[in-house]
User: Fold this.
Amino acid sequence: MNMLNNTHDAACVEGVALTAIAAQFGTPCYVYSRAALTAAYASYQTALEGRNARICYAVKANSNLAILNVFARLGAGFDIVSGGELARVIAAGGDPAKVVFSGVGKSRAEMRQALQAGIHCFNVESASELELLNTVAGEMGRRAPIALRVNPNVDPKTHPYISTGLKTSKFGVAFATARELYRRAHALPNLEIRGIACHIGSQLLDPQPAADAAGRVLELVDSLAAEGIALQHIDLGGGMGIRYRAETVLPTADYLAPMLARLAGRKEVLFFEPGRSLVGNAGLLLTQVEVLKHGEEKNFAVVDAAMNDLARPALYDAWHDMVKVGAGGTAPAGTAALMGTAPIQARRYEIVGPICESGDFLGHDRELALAEGDLLAILSAGAYGMAMSSNYNTRPRAAEVMVDGDQMHLIRRREEVAQLFALESVLP
Ligand code: LLP
Assistant:
């Protein structure tokens, strides 16, 4: 889904023109649509109607408090991977009792923090974590609620960096040892077994691997039940893909259908941990063309967003569609001389940022009619965009704005340079 519309002869998000957002808050700027967030969440609710299911938004995809708050108001739970994310969920009004805690390297301090907050469940990923959690819970005089994250060894058919359910992956406990670990957990005094979890990867377009994984998980659940270890919930992770380019993306209900078919009639509560599919297409990155360079081999459009703002192209060679959403003010002299007064012609551009690395690109080979000062919207940037941004090259991170109907709300101020080194000090 493209969150842009052209209602008022201008590119708008809901009722607000992107030119107005750029004028008020500057660029680069992430722009989100509350309606798009809500619609994505509703698609899960509809798909899961009649099931005893919980949607735990994967905070890592986009952890802005306003985004978390929108989901908290819709009744979501949260999938977290750090104490920092737990603090955000609580600050945003989320309910800790609806939190599941994933991740391969939880620290003692994070375990204590999560036990104190009363989260629903730790998704434990190793034998050592199980023992440590038992110890930490014991020291606090509590019992830690747990699920084991199992690795079903299913190929999710996605980018290797975001594929997590294969034997070779660092995630989860091997299927073959899971039963043994459940027995161990059952025997430990300070643990309370609640469920089982699995997550095989991200940006999944084919629903079959997730359905196969669910099938494997069910075998384990049933054999554990036969031994007297009963599980209350089955957490199927996240992973549903979104449309970035021309991918065929199934509607949420169709993607979940094969998995839900396998889970028909089960008494366990079903948990899902979607990230990208809730926020990815509900956000874009607004950027301005700074400089056009027409080289012998290539044309470059240097924009004011860079790999520090959106790392996905540099990191995964990911594609993000781009559209021109506003014409520049007065084009600088250089461009005017090059272009003359004729209408701007479309060229094939490398869309790059100002960072001193060749890997700093946002798109290759994009046919666009550009002038300096133009505004570009980089689409499908709501997930793993701002969340993975950095201050590389001492670049203040972008502002974030959420549109709600005809209102725009600044949900994160643009950073200021002085803040970037405020925690540093020189030698005496
Ligand atoms: N649950 C667990 C345990 C996960 O590791 C992840 C994502 C999710 C849920 C959410 O998956 P989603 O629904 O968003 O696919 N930075 C990469 C994506 C990394 C995903 C990591 N784990 C990217 O930009 O494509």
